[in-house]
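Marked as duplicate of an earlier ticket. Keeping the data here for the record.
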Amino acid sequence: MISLGLSVYEKGLLDEIDSLAYGELYSVRHREQELTFNLRISFKRKNFIQALRERKFIDRLTIHDCEPVAAEIRCNTESGRECLQKLKF
């Protein structure tokens, strides 16, 4: 567990992950907000929040046992080819 500052929106995403428990969330967007919560969260959740803050958009987030485990992000390679990047948390 690690302590991390979270916005209201980010805490809401983590609450949605808890309520879904198993499944997928689509089109997860980042919203710039003031960090109003300081919570102790798992490393997988910290890695998810950091990836969302950096990437600003996740096409598909896979959730297993109330934890974000993987994300898929559409992007382009350096040569301009479309690709689907997969991140594991």
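See parent ticket for discussion. Residues 2-88 form one domain.
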